[in-house]
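Kindly draft a sequence, keeping tokens residue-aligned:
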Amino acid sequence: MSSASPTDLAIYDMDRTVTRRATYTPFLIYCAARRAPWRLALVPFAALSMLAYAAKLIDRGRLKEINHRLLLGALRTRAELAPLLSGFAALTARTNVRPGARAAIARDKAEGRRVVMATASYRFYAAAIAEALGFDDCIGTDTLLGLDQAVRAKIDGQNCYGPAKLVMIEHWLAREGVSRAHVRFYSDHVSDAPVFEWADEAVAVNPHDRLRRMAVQRGWAVEDWG
């Protein structure tokens, strides 16, 4: 890594930073409606798992796995997923992207930055959204792949959330052989505090109250992306 040329980076959270609304449950419902409409009858059970998460009976990673299994299935091949990924990415790019995010991505690319998405969402679908929006790379929660390369309803490694997101960004830097020069980081949520603190330039985007207070205390930029 030390031999690599220093690189200016712009790293973006996805849900409610780049997008107006969260994407995970809409993605699963989109897939169920097109692949197996009978699975929509399982939505109430997905809601129950969210209540279990709210009651701290399960963690965010387990919540993801349960809803994945309910609405997408325990195993899906790449061929089955391909049209669903491209279709949902196109829909997201068309209907669920903040105007300010598009402007920021264009500005960062014009400045010569490597533009990276870092999201707690599953990388297998977030990468399709990232590509549709012109990102260079995508870091996200990985799913377990078998020898058949089919996607399973099981997280591989860490859920890319909170402190784990910073760990996964650093692992990505090492894996890609990237030496950071200047890092600009955007997010809407205080859970990304470890990455905000690590970045050279922190930008709180449409922040909720707790992040807004932290941004004021730390002197971070605050932006409204619409």
